[in-house]
């Protein structure tokens, strides 16, 4: 694994999908483990999860953030996961300097949108992690702007890891799992539109996609979409865009992951 140097760190977006990917051997968990072995080792990680929406922006500031099991109906083995990474109050304070109105807090921790991915990317849980909330009051362009304000952290040894899904219609997903319905052709079409906008660095289109007809199907609520916008905002035209993990779970839940880096990732 590389060590951080003078070059800036990449930005990641992980399609996290089913929380059981944290404890099961799946094509997604294997993909994340392989991805993690190719990543540089950061000084700290800033995680942006689909599962922490607040009025305003908050950053976890504990010395040891708790592992939050923010779900129900899953087996005990998932509830037993403890991603015991240290926190970084100093990084939370730095975020408050960069992002106007951002507030350090000890009222949250690392939710499953964060740890279900990090448990594979960085299984040692020995890198400080701060989780950042998404501002429920702002729009897609506002989330892209948030990413731009966070971009300087890349030069400071901080790895930005956003987590959500490019498509996230759970009703369609559960119908597909029960084999009671099909008709999810919108999912690969929307994913294709997202890929095109990312590769073309078409910020205007990317910000507008969630309001498109297929975007409304892909995201009945915007929570799993907006982390991608924050991640994109922290990148620029000098970054190489790659897709280290791909696929549609159940034919409609996009597990597409994205890496923006200064160089092409190793094959």
Structural account:
The protein has 267 residues and is an alpha/beta fold. It has a single domain (11-261), classed as LigB-like (Protocatechuate 4,5-dioxygenase, Chain B), CATH 3.40.830.10. The chain has ten helices and ten strands. A six-stranded mixed sheet has the order 5-2-6-1-10-7, sandwiched between helices. Strand 8 (248-249) and strand 9 form a beta hairpin. It is globular and about 50 Å long.
How are the secondary structure elements laid out?
Blueprint: E1 11-15, H1 27-38, E2 44-54, E3 58-60, H2 76-79, H3 89-98, E4 103-105, H4 112-121, E5 129-135, H5 140-150, E6 158-164, H6 170-177, H7 186-199, H8 203-208, H9 213-218, H10 226-233, E7 240-242, E8 248-249, E9 253-254, E10 258-261
Parallel strand pairs: 1-6, 2-5, 2-6, 3-4
Antiparallel strand pairs: 1-10, 7-10, 8-9
Helix pairs in contact: 5-10
**Radius of gyration based on Cα positions:** 17 Å
Approximately how much helix is present in the residues? 25-40%
Regions with pLDDT < 50 over 5+ consecutive residues?
1-6
Number of helices: 10
CATH fold annotation: Protocatechuate 4,5-dioxygenase, Chain B
Strand content: 15-25%
Instruction: Note the gap between the termini.
Output: 14 Å
Oligomer: single chain
Order of helices and strands: EHEEHHEHEHEHHHHHEEEE
- What is the makeup of the main sheet? 6 strands, mixed
Structural class of the helices, strands and pairings? alpha/beta
Task: Please report the total strand number as a whole number.
Answer: 10
CATH architecture: 3-Layer(aba) Sandwich
User: What is the name of the CATH superfamily?
Assistant: LigB-like
Strand line-up in the sheet with most strands: 5-2-6-1-10-7
Mean pLDDT: 92
């Amino acid at each position: 694994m590389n060590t951080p140097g003078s070059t800036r760190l990449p930005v990641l977006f992980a399609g996290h999908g089913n929380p059981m990917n944290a404890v099961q051997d799946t094509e997604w968990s294997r993909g994340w483990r392989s991805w993690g072995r190719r990543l540089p080792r950061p000084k700290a990680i800033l995680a942006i999860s689909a599962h922490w929406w607040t009025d305003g922006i908050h950053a976890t500031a504990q010395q040891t953030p708790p592992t939050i099991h923010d779900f129900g109906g899953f087996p005990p083995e998932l509830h037993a996961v403890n991603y015991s990474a240290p926190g970084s109050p100093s990084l939370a304070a730095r975020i408050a300097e960069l992002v106007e109105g951002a507030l350090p807090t000890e009222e949250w921790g690392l939710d499953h949108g964060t740890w279900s991915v990090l448990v594979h990317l960085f299984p040692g849980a020995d890198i400080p992690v701060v989780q950042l909330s998404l501002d429920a009051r702002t729009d897609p362009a506002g989330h892209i702007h948030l990413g731009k304000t966070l971009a300087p952290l890349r030069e400071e040894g901080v790895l930005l890891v956003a987590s959500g899904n490019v498509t996230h219609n759970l009703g369609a997903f559960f119908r597909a799992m029960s084999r009671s319905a099909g008709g999810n052709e919108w999912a690969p079409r929307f994913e294709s539109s997202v890929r095109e906008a990312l590769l073309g660095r078409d910020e205007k289109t990317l910000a507008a996609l969630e309001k498109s007809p297929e975007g409304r199907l892909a995201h009945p609520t915007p929570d799993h979409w907006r982390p991608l916008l924050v991640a994109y905002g922290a990148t620029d035209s000098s970054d190489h865009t790659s897709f280290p993990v791909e696929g549609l779970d159940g034919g409609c839940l996009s597990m597409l992951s994205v890496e923006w880096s200064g160089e092409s990732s190793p094959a």
